[in-house]
From TrEMBL:
Protein name: ABC transporter ATP-binding protein
Presence of the UniProt keyword ATP-binding in the record: yes
Domain ABC transporter: 3-206
Record carries keyword ATP-binding: yes
InterPro entries on file: AAA+_ATPase, ABC_transporter-like_ATP-bd, ABC_transporter-like_CS, P-loop_NTPase
Native organism: Philodulcilactobacillus myokoensis
Keywords from the UniProt entry: ATP-binding, Nucleotide-binding
GO molecular function: ATP binding; ATP hydrolysis activity
Pfam families: ABC_tran
Length: 206
């Protein structure tokens, strides 16, 4: 089983972003995207999920179109996507139901020590609380492919270490595709490093 991207090209009016990106993400391992802001990593993530238009010859999982395998992937771009009138518990229950997950909500809440605020509306959350909820959604989904865009933003150092330890554990049987401003912290855990430079995605040996 693999997530395969073939000849992915992304452009906007008067702006070229990515040229002919072809790559196979295996079912397990941690893939780190290294790129400067505005170079196209988020556009690649959005294109894989069909959130923006792109030119490609197909994005597939196990040779099946992404549209048929949507629940095999989880991507929640930013805590800015949250409806602040909902609670963290609302979101955890929603994702557990939609992804038909067997992961226990209470276990994830305990892992991130969210007990004191998970039932409060998100409008009352700090940035760190929102980010822990965001990560919790990935854990609850239990999806085979987890695409994470700057997932450790807003976390203190201890929480980032805890996250990386968890991602390293998950990468033994899941595919983790991640970008991070704290790339030096992620490097030791990365199985593959993909660098975006001059509209091209370069596969760095690692």
């Amino acid at each position: 089983m693999a997530l395969e991207v073939k000849n992915l090209s992304i452009s906007f009016p008067h702006l070229r972003v990515i040229n002919n990106f072809t790559y196979q993400f295996n079912q397990n391992g941690l893939y780190l995207f290294v790129a400067t802001n505005g170079s196209g990593k988020t556009s690649i993530f959005r294109s894989i999920l069909g959130l923006i238009h792109s030119k490609n010859n197909g994005i597939t999982i196990d040779d099946k179109p992404m549209a048929q395998m949507r629940r095999s992937v989880f991507y929640y771009e930013s805590s800015n996507w949250f409806d602040i009138n909902m609670s963290g518990m609302d979101y955890l229950k929603l994702i557990k139901t939609q992804w038909k997950s067997n992961v226990k909500i209470n276990a994830v809440i305990h892992f991130w020590k969210m007990e004191n605020y998970v039932n409060k509306s998100i409008r009352k959350y700090s940035l760190g609380m929102k980010q822990k909820l965001l990560i919790a959604l990935y854990l609850i989904s239990d999806a085979d492919y987890l695409i994470m865009d700057e997932i450790n933003n807003g976390l203190d150092e201890d929480s980032r270490k805890k996250l990386l330890k968890k991602l390293n554990e998950l990468s033994q049987h899941k595919c983790i595709i991640i970008s991070s401003h704290y790339k030096d912290e992620v490097y030791p855990y990365a199985d593959k490093i993909l660098t975006i430079k001059d509209h091209e995605v370069i596969n760095d040996n690692h």
